[in-house]
Amino acid sequence: MHPDLSYCEAAKIEKVSHIRYSLRCSSCSCAYSSSDLLNLCECGKPLLVEYDLAALSRSASDDEKFEDAVRWIDAARSDMWRYAAVLPVDASEAVTLGEGWTPLFHLRRLGFRLKAADLWLKDEGRNPTDSFKARGLSVAVTMARKLGAKKLAIPSAGNAASALAAYAAAAGLEAHIFMPDDVPQSNFIECKAYGAQVILINGLISDCGRIIAERKQREGWFELSTLKEPYRIEGKKTMGYELAEQLKWTLPDAILYPCGGGVGLIGMWKAFAELEALGVIGSKRPRMIAVQASGCEPMTVAFERGAEECEYFNDAYTVASGLRVPKPLGDFLILRAVRESEGAVVSVSDEEMMDSGALLAQDEGIFAAPEGGACVAALAKLLASGFLKFSDRIVIYNTGSGLKYLEAYSSRFPRTASREQDKLGGLITPR
Amino acid sequence: MHPDLSYCEAAKIEKVSHIRYSLRCSSCSCAYSSSDLLNLCECGKPLLVEYDLAALSRSASDDEKFEDAVRWIDAARSDMWRYAAVLPVDASEAVTLGEGWTPLFHLRRLGFRLKAADLWLKDEGRNPTDSFKARGLSVAVTMARKLGAKKLAIPSAGNAASALAAYAAAAGLEAHIFMPDDVPQSNFIECKAYGAQVILINGLISDCGRIIAERKQREGWFELSTLKEPYRIEGKKTMGYELAEQLKWTLPDAILYPCGGGVGLIGMWKAFAELEALGVIGSKRPRMIAVQASGCEPMTVAFERGAEECEYFNDAYTVASGLRVPKPLGDFLILRAVRESEGAVVSVSDEEMMDSGALLAQDEGIFAAPEGGACVAALAKLLASGFLKFSDRIVIYNTGSGLKYLEAYSSRFPRTASREQDKLGGLITPR
């Protein structure tokens, strides 16, 4: 049998024994066995993976070269599984579509326009299924399959659904997907094409979550909602590892991250803590800036009130489907990271995020999700207020491609209907 | 000033002086200066880039290790500019969005279904703008800018338009884009978002090309139509370099490639020839199989007739927009490569390509363009006929993501309209 040649493995790496890990509650610190298929702690809060990092770390007294501190990275891989040593499973067991290792762009033209001298964008639209959700679902589906799950379920505002459908297909598992009935067509079509069972709900992601919670036991579904299992965050944290590596093991002055469920932000914060424990970076952290839509801003409200958790946000609405999360389960973790880093939570309107998304595309050739546009709009506000400075090294995360949000952009760029065929859903009639 | 940190450049590479090249007609062998902004040869046929490969090649009598034969590859780059030494310009001058170095997947489940034991797919949907067109337009826009062009124009069935718009934006150049008025919404929105001037024509790509030819001189546009300038093919050829590298410098028994303009196929054929001249591979070649849509099959007809060129195909129609090319300019080059490799040209129906696209998504978690589905359908036919064997190593190219073709997939996966908002173009009304 020939070896798997999916990636050119030019360099031989030192095989590091896979490190041990355990599961611990993010709130009450209860410990759990990592070999069970688990959702939440008994106290209702999320479980997080804790690694025995001592096996990989460089001690301060060693004379080892810095290169040894990162020897556990499989640099021959052009995907996030280069960090398998700090993930719960070997790359050889991964359900992978080559996710991660996304490009980090220096935004010269947009930076000039906004008066930000050192502006960068990490483009998560370049993942399988065109969003960063691929990272988390790759790890979560890998672990679910390994721990014996056969049927997976998810409530999703859009992109997580597409990612679950893709990775479930790649893994040979069933996927049961609940989405609001106004999800972008991209997500609907992806999920159907990948062979998932798709149920559209007249409601929000929270309604979808409630329905799954009610039915899953009877149906035998394992639920993969944000932070209701511990492994999606492990995939998302690799965004932090990559940023540090691509910036040559430094961190920027500020990171702007679109905050729906906020698990990408929490994941990166975890990654930075692990990198420090590994002796790769020091204690300096970027200001973590969570960006929300003004039409759904529970975190902004909580931040401004000095609260530790947020309230359910009523009548949530925004074209940025990924930000339409009225009460994120990880709210207390997001607020903790934002405050510890002296960051902020900022809201922008749909109009502002779409304007900024258009500028980003015109200036840089990057067609971002509204969530990415939201970060650009937030950046402009924070530069205007002086919270961020012209000379700061700033990194924006674009969490998905604009191709997942054609409806949102279509209102900005109307197309004259020359025939009936330009309506989505109709076959093009031959001439 | 800090260096461009867009990619982690962990390895220092031996700096190879950029090799010389010239332009030569593919038909009459006339030579041209490479420092002029050129379209076609005076005889009307395409110009191709010829490199002075001796500077890079390994001679048969050397005792050099094989690694030296590929020392000119910048292995630290996770994009196609790792091959800059055999491209017309240094990576430092490139207008790049990190295109290329796409994943090569081993299709175990689909291979089992089709009885193909060694089946692989190279997923070009993973490029900027979600199609392989990014490769060619990256090089072409780079060269156009370098040689002084300010305004670029293209006729396109869809994905080339999106790619030109993106790279023109990244380069700070104007883009003038002519597309049939039934192009997928994805392409229309991308081009508008990237700031291009977009003109929709009631006609086919050939009509769009005619209009540009008529207006370009007056408007001062440089035209970037397929094979009407010599550099798009240089970007596309990197698909061949990558395949060889990812298969550890071997080539498969067969390659199935969706053939609209066919420049990807011609480009790969050129890459293989260059790799042989460089002493990296031998003379063995894969069977090159061009896949067409039965609704637009000028190449299939020409192949079956034993012709050296094809006739204009009347009433061309297919949901695979990239295959709707009634008379490819490079027809004689495609047929030459197919015949020299003992390959074939095969047509499949729209129904077959969409069925196969759905199977690919369900079995492997890869959501392909109809063009990719067409290759799967063609493979099934060639296995059934015995032209390809169960044990053959076969590589399929998926040239774009299914996300660029939501209309085509929407007819297969209809969505019940619960409200007016599911029609593309309308804003979602807040609840």
Question: Could you report the average pLDDT of chain A, rounded to the nearest whole number?
Answer: 90
Strand content of chain A: 5-15%
Instruction: Quickly count the helices of chain A.
Output: 13
Helix content of chain A: 25-40%
Order of helices and strands of chain A: EEEHEHEHEHEHEHEHEHEHHEHHEH
Can you give a write-up of this model?
The structure is a homodimer of 431-residue chains. Chain A has 431 residues and is of the alpha/beta class. The first copy, chain A, is 34% helix and 15% strand. The first copy, chain A, has helices at 66-69, 108-114, 133-146, 159-171, 185-193, 205-219, 232-246, 263-277, 298-305, 331-340, 350-364, 370-385, 406-412; strands at residues 21-25, 31-32, 47-51, 104-106, 118-123, 151-155, 174-180, 197-201, 222-223, 254-258, 287-293, 344-348, 393-398. Chain A has a six-stranded mixed beta sheet, with helices on both faces. In chain A, strands 8-7-6-9 form a four-stranded parallel beta sheet, sandwiched between helices. In chain A, helix 4 (159-171) links the parallel strand 6 (151-155) and strand 7 (174-180). The radius of gyration of chain A is 21 Å and the shape is globular. Chains A and B meet through strand 4, helix 4, helix 5, helix 11 and helix 13 of A and strand 4, helix 4, helix 5, helix 11 and helix 13 of B.
